[in-house]
Amino acid sequence: MKASILVVEDENVIRNTLREFLAGDGYDVVTAATVDEALNRIRGRDFDVAVCDVQLPDGDGINLLRKIHQFNPKTFVLVITAYATVENAVEAFHAGAYDYLVKPVIFEDLAHKLSQLFQYRDLILENQSLRRELERRGDLERIVGTSKSVVELQNTIRKVAVTNGNVLLVGETGTGKELVARSIHSGGRHAGEKFLAVSCGTRPIEQLEAMLFGTTDDQPGVLRAAGSGTVFLDEIAELPMGTQAELLRVLEYGEIVPVGGSDSVRVEARIVASTTRDLQVEVDEGRFQEDLFYRLDGAKIRIPALRERLDDIPELVDYFVARHTQQMGKRVTGATSETIRLLMAAQWKGNVRQLDNAVERAVMLCDGTQILPTDLPPDLVGDAAGLPEADDLRSALRHYERLHITRVLKQCTDKREAAKRLRLGLSSLYRKIEELKIET
To answer: Maximum Cα–Cα distance for the chain, whole Å?
Structure first.
């Protein structure tokens, strides 16, 4: 793909000459004559580089630089100034400029700076990729995210893990309940012991009870085999009523009766159970034992759905890309901004598991180093929620921007907190609210 460059220059001759020169060198060039025109350009697409004049008819090129970085921090900015002073250079670098050019622009100088810039960018991307691989190596199972709901979940896990008590995990399919169970185990006092997982709804009753409680013919069952470790019971609401009664004995007295036996046996394993159902409804309708429900419900952790933590999607994508490229031996480094926007607009009925599967497929099909929208599952792209029917990309992005800011504002009681989560200045957030006509 051609590298894209936005040229912001109010003088027609200079703007057109720069466009012709850069296009002749093989770049995809877009031009703007004013700050407003430049902002419209960057709302509609991402640019690798922006070449901006400092003096513009409707604003300051340094302030435009800052706004460009708000839209896409990965865009490198070269500032054009009529006067090469130390003060101008310092101000430009403090605002985040990569370098600056002095008028009249010497094309050879511009070409040299762009060549250095892209070499520097490639080196940064390679270092980031290597750093991700090192960070992920030996750490392929962890809770990823920095959203408020995930931070609260991690804090709860840390508090619950050290107690060694039994825990109930509640959440939709694909939210990562087993991963949370493993985190509880690894944060507990018996992290060095076994972690054994059992699916409660996939076997005949006799086979399931033999697996859980063991038999008299030297089959210990997972509750004994785990020792003082952890047994994860996935979809506990699927357990038959009789098996629930046996599990209640484990929770109340720490003992089991093996299948076919009559003598009880002591067990020490910690129980972490999970469910996608409302157990109170199951109790009310006679499908779940009330005493067992109260035993489990006291230490209940709710796992948020992916739609409640959309801000974590870029980090999750980065994590899954690193994992799958390591497994497949490919050199995919990440996803384009357009791809991330589409992923953040999808409905994610299958939650994190669905996102993981989508990224795995994308890595498999990706021909370059960046996942493109065409690498995503077609049904996922078609399932993007809340986007307008119009084909105009700028309108679609503004529409999604409005939806995203509205969602964050609803989750935050204070606009300062919302601005922090959106990585915007408070004044910028107020401008967005006014510009996008968001009701607060």
So the answer is: 95
